Amino acid sequence: MTGWLQGRRALVVGAGSGIGRAVVDAFLSEGASVAILEKDEAKCQAVRDALPNVPVTCGDATTREANEAAVAATVDAFGGLDLLVNCVGIFDYYRGLSELDSEVLDEAFDEIFAVNVKSQLHSVKAALPALREADNASILLTESTSAYYPGRGGVLYVGSKFAVRGIVTSLAYELAPDIRVNGVAPGGTLNTDLRGLSSLGLHDRSLGSTPGREKELQARVPLAVALDGSDHAWSYVFLASDRSRGITGDVVHPDGGIAVKR
Ligand SMILES: NC(=O)c1ccc[n+]([C@@H]2O[C@H](COP(=O)([O-])OP(=O)(O)OC[C@H]3O[C@@H](n4cnc5c(N)ncnc54)[C@H](O)[C@@H]3O)[C@@H](O)[C@H]2O)c1
Hints:
This protein has 7 helices and 9 strands; from the N terminus they run βαβαβαβαβαββαβαβ. It is an alpha/beta fold. The strands form 2 sheets. Strands 3-2-1-4-5-6-9 form a 7-stranded parallel sheet, with helices on both faces. The chain has a two-stranded parallel sheet with strand order 7-8. α1 (18-29) packs across α7 (229-240). The site of nicotinamide-adenine-dinucleotide has 30 residues, from α1, β2 and α4. Keywords: Oxidoreductase.
């Protein structure tokens, strides 16, 4: 343990698997106290079993009520809240607009923007009163390479991630100097459970189970690495820590070097 987050109190939203779950482990190993909000009952129970000292709120992060309950549980357990991380997400399996039936467009748009975008706003809104009470508070939202480039998601996913990027910029502007707001933009990731949209009949598909994913990820990026949540988690630790105290409205890109791809 190096203690980069010693004594800090964190809420991680969407922490039942993948990147969020890895952020929980990294934050704990760096000395933070961590609470979570997660929708999936089985994942909530798995976290309770593995980490009995982590307060778990089981609820839907697209709602005001669940986020307020999770913030209240965090403050109740730890006496305050310094760090908010949102890692929820769903995926559209690369569907282009021409492949989306007109009849499902409304529902698919509402579903992906509720989970990928609105949840981030509800998490921040619910956490703001507690974060304003804290010293050096920090918010971390999860973007993606899809917040910068086309092709690694469909039009709805890319659109939703560009929106998260905009929210990071806008909130960093709004909340300075009291609260820093930054993004992490992971590249394609191993060992996650990123689900498809229910409205497109894709909920049972999990991106992490795609056959050959490790080789495909390695082939995709200049550094030839296939990263998992534990790789990305250190970007969250850095941006949450006071080592990054001069950084807001910015983004770390743990993506194997997509920006320098030939
Ligand atoms: N997997 C990738 O390749 C990849 C790449 C770049 C960015 N991302 C982004 O990283 C983030 C985490 O994704 P992941 O790959 O770890 O997926 P994941 O599904 O393993 O993790 C997301 C967690 O959020 C939970 N969740 C989903 N909807 C929720 C809701 N409404 N309320 C509360 N919890 C909810 C899920 O149950 C899950 O535990 C997402 O924002 C995703 O878009 C993923």
